[in-house]
Design a protein that fits this description.
There is one protein chain. The protein is α/β, with parallel strands linked by helices. It is built from five helices and nine strands; from the N terminus they run ααββαβαβαβββββ. It has one domain: Vaccinia Virus protein VP39 (Rossmann fold, 3-Layer(aba) Sandwich), CATH 3.40.50. The strands form two sheets. The chain has a seven-stranded mixed sheet with strand order 5-4-3-6-7-8-9, covered by helices on one side. Bound molecules: S-adenosyl-L-homocysteine. S-adenosyl-L-homocysteine binds next to strand 2, helix 4 and strand 4.
Length: about 210
């Protein structure tokens, strides 16, 4: 049951944390309104589900801050017919938001337990257009490419080489780059005429992208 308290908290999140901080894409706002974040956080943290901050989950990982999820989705300029690759499924919250915005979401997580839990949770909540995979997301997901957007929910030291070939013409990569621990710069890379155009979108803080090779 969604308590009135949580429902009101979700509305406050939309108005105070998202709209007020520059999330203007109405489709992104509607997606953030639709996804019950309380279902993605540990039981004890449910009262805090709509605080605008990352919350701790298993294996020293975290569920991203609502503003960050909305910011990345907005920066990716998604359209309803799109196919998106997300790296770092975590709880599945980001994938659920993306699932409200595009036709197909492919998401990769390297921790088996997180991947399993997120897969079951997304199924239980009825997000049928999300496909999960266990593995190293820095390699992308060649079999399912090309993607209109690749969204990376963990901080990389550099742009993974595999992503370019898996991006459609005009496609966008949203990726935080920087050392773990300190903040990282969010970049948008857009593929145009065989090249990547790079834009810096501001500072954020993420757990590291851990690459297996
Ligand atoms: N999008 C998530 C939050 C992601 S936190 C949510 O909404 O809950 C970052 C996640 O990236 C963590 O779960 C971490 O295990 C995962 N991760 C780190 N390196 C990875 C890699 N190389 N491939 C896939 N997942 C990775």
């Amino acid at each position: 049951m969604v308590s009135e308290h949580l429902f009101a908290a979700r509305q406050r999140m939309l108005n105070q944390h998202l709209r007020a901080r520059g999330i203007t894409d109405e489709r992104v706002l509607a997606a953030m309104q639709r996804v019950p974040r309380e279902e993605f956080v540990p039981e004890a943290l449910r009262p805090h589900a709509y605080d605008d901050r990352a919350l701790p989950v298993e294996f020293e990982q975290s569920i991203s801050q609502p503003y960050t999820v909305a910011f990345m989705a907005q920066a990716a300029q998604l359209e309803g017919q799109g196919r998106v690759l997300e790296i770092g499924t975590g709880t599945g919250y980001g994938a659920a938001v993306l699932a409200c915005l595009v036709a197909e979401v492919f998401t990769v997580e390297r921790w088996p337990e997180l991947c399993n839990t997120a897969t079951q949770r997304l199924e239980r909540l009825g997000f049928r257009n999300v496909v999960t995979k266990l593995g190293d997301g820095s390699l992308g997901w060649a079999e399912q490419s090309p993607f209109d957007a690749i969204i990376v929910a963990a901080a990389a030291e550099r742009l993974p080489a595999a992503f370019f070939d898996q991006l459609s013409e005009g496609g966008r990569i949203i990726l935080p780059i920087g050392e773990p621990g300190s903040g990282q710069t969010m970049f948008r890379f857009t593929r145009r005429n065989g090249e990547l155009q790079e834009e810096s979108l501001g500072m954020f803080s993420f757990v590291p992208l851990v690459c297996d090779q």
